[in-house]
Amino acid sequence: SEFLTPYTPYQPEVSQGGLQVMFEFQTAISELTGLPIANASMYEGPSSVASAGYLALGAVKGRKKYVVSRGLHPHSRATLETYSRGFGTEVVEVGLAEGVTSADELAAALDDDVAAVFVQNPNFLGAVEDLEALAAAAHDAGALCVAQVDPITLSILKPPGECGVDVAVGEGQALGGRLDFGGPSFGFFAATEEHLRRMPGRIAGETTDVDGRRGFVLALQTREQHIRRERATHNICTSQALNALGGVVYLAWLGKRGFVELGELLVRRTAYARRRLAAAEGVELLHPDAPVVREFAIRVGGDVQAVLDSVAADGIAAGYPLGLEYDEYKDCILVAITERTSREYIDRFADSLARASAGAPVAQEVAG
Known about the structure:
It contains eight helices and 15 strands.
């Protein structure tokens, strides 16, 4: 509770407890992403992506173009577009092939004016991307590779830093955050060491005092209140520090083994859900051959909203209608599996979805 009350934990005289939380958070994010440097948190995922774009402009001089996978979260793509108007950069979108970023379209889009390639893993459709290939293609063109990653899936997937990614960012709400209609949340930002001085926000460091005791300090502050505004890399403030604390507490509570076990559980549950839903009449997997971790897309028969409403009458939240973001997937739903999604729930979901997709009447009594 003491963390709720201290005022402005970004000043030089910030408490040792607040600084240690930042340091522990940075350490956790660095271990998850496989990248040596992480900052003390960001606002949320989409603006973290845009901040990575600003970093790329400083790192790759003279280039004014971003290449963005259509598999990147729609909110992140929109935020990057908005920031790009101020950056004076052009955003070129690359389509998907069999659920993942099209290698051919990416190759065609890369030229000597591209500063960064933006991808997501797993992508918005839930499919696991070949990060190593995407990073190699970006580097061959002299550009950086920026990956938005789901921190929960990093329990079992190869870390982006080991795949050649230069900057890894993401949304931290999944790390024990409350739903609360989408918030509160926090973002995270990690990079290779060469980009240290271009990173946004704050970085806490470990040191010793004059008596040799372990202590913590603010090692880097690149926000406009600390340095000249024109040299600042971000305006990140204190609003997310408490949420980041929640994230690192969640990770510490799970522990390294527990975190891996969570990822393995999600893979098993998701595989079971894919099999059960694909067997339902009128339902098919959108990309059956694409590996997934905890999200996947399905195509349903008939009107998507009618199907969602019918399944909701059985007390089940089926998923997100992809037609809201992708015109080509108007008959598709994005399904998410969590550790709280039981096999019994999945079975009820599959039966209800089969009735809804086939146009059969739906039970009026809400189950569960």
